[in-house]
C-alpha cells in the first residue's frame, strides 16, 4: 500500500486525495480558509502551507535511497506548498507547523497579511465564536499587527438579497460563496468585483441575491462578511446550545442543527450528511425555526358552546375517554400524519387497534413541481414513507374530503397535521362530528376542532422520520417543555452550556416552555384512564415495538441511527399491520 | 563576445515602407516560410518544425525566457479534440512597448509565425490577446488577419496542404494580470482574470480544459526567420545562449527613447549611451531597470560589461524580462521610484492570493510613509519582511514581481532609504 509520512509519522493510504483532506481526516490540524470539501480548490488563501518532499527511489532496485546516516534521501519542493491543492503520492514526506519552523512562520505571515485589512470588529460581529479566522488567529497567528496605516474601506451593510447581508470589509476573498453559487446552487449570482485589496463579492448591478440556497453562503463564509439578515444580532454563538435534528419541512429529511437559547430555537443550520444533504440545506427549511417558537398550542383547548377555551389536561383526557365510550368502533375515523413521527403514528394506530379500529388514513402533502435538482422534493412532509411503512391507507385530498363528510363517522381523530387546510370541505359537513386534533401549532384544523391536544414538536421530542429516499433518521429534544428538564433528560443535547453552564446562565430558563406532551404519552395517559393495556414508557419502547412488528424496520435502533447518520431502509410494498 | 551592432540591419521590423500591407510583405519574402513548411519539396512535418525551432533556441520574449520550441514539444499528441494557441499581446509591464511595433509595422511576420506554430502543434484555433488600450493596433491586426484570410494563408486547407487554422483577436480590458498566461486563458474564456493553480499546466489543460500553448507576440514573429534561414543562422545572432534579434524598448532619462532592434547580448552601456543617445544634460545614470518594472534594478555604477542576455544579467543580479530598459538618472530618489512601482503592483494585484493582495498594499503604504518623511529605520526591516512574506507564496509570479523591485532597491540603494528615514524627528514624550 502507498505510504505518506506526515510529521515523522507514517500513514498508509489507498485513494489518492489531497494532502489537506487527508490530514484533516486523520485528526490532525492545519489552518485553512478557502478550501471546502464540497467545492473546487482555488488555493487562494495560502494558509495551509506545508513543506513537501519526495523520498528518492533507486531506479534499479526500487528501494528508497539512504544517505550516510541511514536516513532516506528526500527531494524537497523548492517552495512551500498549499496542502489543499497538493495530490498525495507514494513516498511523500510532509512537514506541517508541528515539525517545521518555516511552515509555522509562513502560516503566521499569511494571517498577519489577512488581518491588515480586516476590521477586527469581533465584539460586534455575528461570526465571533464560530469564526475560522478568529480561531486560527488565536492558534497560529502573530501576536499583534505591525500594520500602522489606514485600512482599505469597502461597502458595509449591503443587503444582497432578502436573506443575506454583506460586510465587504470583513471579507477575506476566499471565494467560497462565489464558488457555491457557481458549483452547487448554480445560480451564478455572486461574483468578485474590483481588484487587489479592494475586491469583494457582490451580485451584478441591480440583481438580487435570491438564490433559494443563499444562506449556505453564510454558513461557509469563514468570516462575518456574509450574515443572515434574519439571525443577525439575535444571539451570540456561545449562548446557544446546538442539537442535531432533522428538517421537518420537506420530505428530503435534511440533517440540521437546532440552535436554542431560553427554550427558543434561534436558528437552524445544516449538518453534514453525505448521503442526504452534504453540507447544504434550502433557505426555506431554516425559516421553519419560527414553527417551534411561535403560535404554539399550549394547554388543551376545548370547545364550549361554540367557543374554544383552555382546559386542563385531566379534563381533556376525560373528554376523550367519554367520547370514545359513547361511539361504536366503526364510527371512529382515524387520520394519521406524514408530519408526525413514526413513533407517534404507530402509537396512534396501535392504541385505536386495541379499541377495534383498524384503518388509519392519511393524505400526503405533495405539491407537483415544488422540488428542484438539489435538495427540495415535491413532498412537503417529512414522514410520508413512515405512514406507508405502517400500512396507513393513502387517500388523496378529494377522497379525504369524502371520508370526512361521511355521515357514518361520529368521531374524528387527526394526528399532528394541518389537514383541513389541504382538504376542501364544508364546515357544515363537520358539524355532526366530534373532531379531536393532536397539534403542535394553531392551524385551520385546530380552529375547527372540538378538542385540541397540544403535542410536542420535533424540537422537543425524540422521533424517527423516514424520508423520500427511505432513510430513517431521528430527532433529539433541543428545548424543554413544561414537563421535561434539560439536566435530567440525558437525551437532550450536551452543548458547551450543558457541560459548563451555571445556574446563572440564561439558558436554564423557565421562559418559553410550551405546555405539551408527546402524542404517544398522551395516548398512554388516556389509556390509563380507560384501563387499556398500553404501557409504553419511552419512545424507545415504541420504536422497539415497531421494529419487532415490521420486518423492513428490523434492527433499527436510535443507537444505529446516531452512529450511522440514519439508516437506509428497503420498504417493499407494506402490508397492513395488525397488532 | 563582440557584436557588430553598428552594422546590424533590422530583420524583425525591417525598414520597408508599408510593410504592414500584405502585398508589400509578400514582395519582400513574406509567407515564404509558411509556403516552405506547407508545400513543395521542402514540406516539413510538424515534428521537423518543432525540432527546428527548438534547435534555434528562441527564448520567450515575454519575460520568462523559456525555449519556445521546447514549450511546443510539451503539447500532447492530437486526440481529435480542439487545441489552442494563445498569443500574448497584453504587454502591460511598465517600461515595455515592443509588441505594438510588430502590430503596427510588421503584423504579418507575427501572423505567419503563429500559423507555423499552429501547424507544428496541430492546432486549429489561434487567439491573439491584445491589451484593450491598443485599440488602433487591434483594428490594424483585424485588417491584417482578414487580408491573410483573403490570400488563403488562414482558414480552410491552407495552400492546399489540408491544414486549416483560424485566427481571432481578443481585446483585453485593462488588467495587467491578464498578461500572466493562466489568467489570460481565464480572460479568454470570459472569466475573471485570476491566475490558475499549476499543475495542470496549459499544455495538459489550458483553454476550456484542452491542450494550449501561450507564446509572446515577438517570440512568434521570430519563427519565420528561423524557418527561412535555419536554426544555425539564427543561433549565430547575438549571445550564444540567448540568440536572436530583440526589440529593446528604452525609456526614462535618455535622449532618444524608443524601440530599437538589435541582437541579444548588447552591452547595456552601448544601448544607453550610443543607441539611446545618453542621459540628458550629461547626468550620471543612477539605476537601470533592464527588463520591465518587475526585474530588479541595477546600480548605474555597476553596468560595466553587463550584456543584455539571460546569463549576463543573472550574473549582474537581474533578469532579461521583456528587454524594456528604463534608465534613471542621479536626480531621482529611489524611494520615490520604488514607491511608484509598488503602487503599480498594488493597483494591479488581482486579489486572489492573500500575500499579494494585502502585501502589495502594505509595501506601497510603507514606502509612502518613508517618502513623506515619516519613515523610521525599522520600516526598512519591515519592507524586507513583507517581501519575504510574499515571495514564492502565491499562485502566479505577480507577488515576486512586486517584491523584487523593493527588495533589490533596498539592497542596492539603501542609502536613499536611510537618508529619508533618518530625517524623521520624534517627540520623546
Number of strands of chain A: 25
Strand line-up of the largest beta sheet of chain B: 6-5-9-7-8
CATH topology of the largest domain in chain A: Rossmann fold
By secondary-structure content and strand pairing, the structural class of chain A works out as alpha+beta
Strand percentage of chain A lies at 15-25%
CATH architecture of the largest domain in chain A: 3-Layer(aba) Sandwich
Task: Give the count of helical stretches of chain A.
Answer: 17
Q: Report the sheet with the most strands of chain A, covering strand number, pairing sense and barrel closure.
A: 8 strands, mixed
Helix content of chain A: 10-25%
Task: State the order of secondary-structure elements of chain B, H for helix, E for strand.
Answer: HHHHEHHEHEHEHHHEEHEEHEHHHHH
The number of helices of chain B is 18
Q: Tell me, what's the shape of chain B?
A: globular
Radius of gyration of chain A, taken over Cα atoms and rounded to an integer in Å: 28 Å
Based on Cα principal axes, name the global outline of chain A. elongated
Largest two-chain interface: A-B, 35 and 31 residues
> Unreliable stretches of chain B, pLDDT < 50, 5 or more residues?
none
Question: SS-based structural class of chain B?
Answer: alpha/beta
Question: Termini of chain A, distance in Å?
Answer: 54 Å
